[in-house]
Amino acid sequence: MKVKYTKFSDERCKDFCIKTVIAEDNNALTVYKEAIYPEGISHINRFVYNKEQLIKYYDIKLCDVQVCGERAIFEYINGELLEDRYCKAAEAGDKEAFGKLLREHKKYAIGNSENITVFCQSDEYREVFGDGSIFEGKPALHLSNYDAIASNIVYTNDQPVFIDYEWVFDFVVPQDVVIYHCIKDVYIHHAKFENIYPFEEAMKELNVETDLQTLENTYRAFHDYVICGKGKADDAYAIIKAICLKKTRTLSDLEHEKLMIIQEFGKFREEKAIEELKFNMQLEDVRRELKKVAEEAFVKQHQLQNAIDAVTAEKEEWERKYNRTVIGATKKIVKKIGACNGKE
What we know:
Elements: E1 2-9, E2 18-25, E3 28-35, H1 41-57, E4 61-62, E5 65-68, E6 71-75, E7 80-81, H2 82-91, H3 95-110, E8 116-118, H4 123-129, E9 139-141, E10 144-145, E11 153-156, E12 159-162, E13 168-169, E14 173-174, H5 175-189, H6 193-196, H7 199-205, H8 212-228, H9 237-244, H10 251-343
Helix pairs in contact: 2-3, 3-5, 5-8
């Protein structure tokens, strides 16, 4: 048997740590999953149960699985991933086709009409997703394939097939919680989808009524459940791994960072030069305005002084005329008085 692909999901708590292998034997491919730790064997054994339950509520085909010892062995399904169809629609800029895929994906995620019920919170739900009281009375699913993500659905002969169903919950889960996770996953792996069909718009198209932050909280709670299990976050292998691993930086990385810094510095200098030019232009405008005001003030002052001088000259002229008149009149009176005294 020749191993073609191996994936270790070892960042999880021990109950859920598994290894996925695609192997070739006699020109035939097989997929198998096995527990990394003894604590995960029950999780592997659950695949058969998951399939049996999904058949009751989902009309979509499921790839076959058998548990042999500590391995779950799946048939290898050739075909086109739903994820790839999303990518083709996005690359073609075909929003209509993308929306059609979203609606199909929702149908695959929620199952048939018999799967629809009303949410009533259980202890099992609370353990995985946290408090769900906000969903009370809202549409829900008897059984949910939380793993109905775009990379786990393959079209073969144009018929969809679930190729993985690791996370199947047999307690009631709100419909919006399942749809949010299944669609959110493909947007996380392909950020460019936001340009062709914004995620928020996709949720509206799929009639998801719950506040997106509330749904994000359930998504994070599930993540914490997988990583930490029933333990504390400090004990989670993924947390310890993230702390211990050091990022490797090559010489080319440093050269690239240096180039980016030089470019950013050049951009900063250019922006500052433009700002300085604008400031100087504004300053020159202010100077011209002040000069204009000063010139106008000088003219006004000169005009005022001329007016004052004119009024002063006119006043002095009136005073001279007044004095001449008064003195002349006084002399005449004195003369007449003198004449009168001489006759007496």
